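ok trying again, last paste got cut off:
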Amino acid sequence: MLPKRYVLDSRISTGTAPEFVDAILRLGEARCSAYVCFTNVHMLVEAHSNPGFQQVLNHAAIAAPDGSPVAAAVGWFNRGQRQERVAGMDLLPALLAEAARRQQSVYFYGTTEQVLEAIVARARHELPGLRVAGTYAPPFRPLSPEEDEAAVAAINAADPDLLFVALGCPRQENWMASHRGRIRACMLGVGQAFHVYAGLERRLPVWARRLWLEWAYRLWLEPQRLWRRYLTTNTRFVYFVLRRAIAQYAGRPHHQRIVV
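nice, full thing came through this time. structure:
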């Protein structure tokens, strides 16, 4: 697997985007019941404050540095190691293309039937060789144990190599962790990447992403839902990073809550 480095108390995988693609496809090929997290600032702050979610994140087979601040923080806390951003929105199409080339199958779980239909339509148009094993849009409520068992049975019967999950953070990460050992596939929590790939949401130009403006664009799209999260989460992230950096500079060791 890809090497991991600590950012705050979370273990973030490192490497190039092609290395992430290859590692994920190898997990799929091995039919590992494993999961992949695409870690942004919101997830790091949630993990820092919630030991249960910290364990979920640190037990991921791969925790990609999805946010630009997360990728930059890998260098801040690990002697200047350079790490590029590896976003789920970018890796989803790359993974589908490579899955088609390697003749691996995929399954899409989450969002709505409309979004799933748009995803499958684009994939079949651009990647006619891609094997789509199935899709499922669960209801917007917790599934009953019977419903969950039926969904797991359907996924395993379809036998995908990769299972893309879009339930929103942290629900999708908790869902993947709770289904590790039950679903025979590599699960990937890609969230909003479904909407982008389906063509239902536009992304900022590359130059704007390099300036770390994607959070501002998301806030502009959904101000009522996101303003409070971004205000509190971004502020806490800066505080946690500064506090840890000062402690590191002063030579004071800090406790790493989970080591796996």
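cool. The longest strand covers residues 34-39. The beta strands are 4-7, 10-13, 34-39, 62-65, 105-110, 131-136, 162-166, 186-189.
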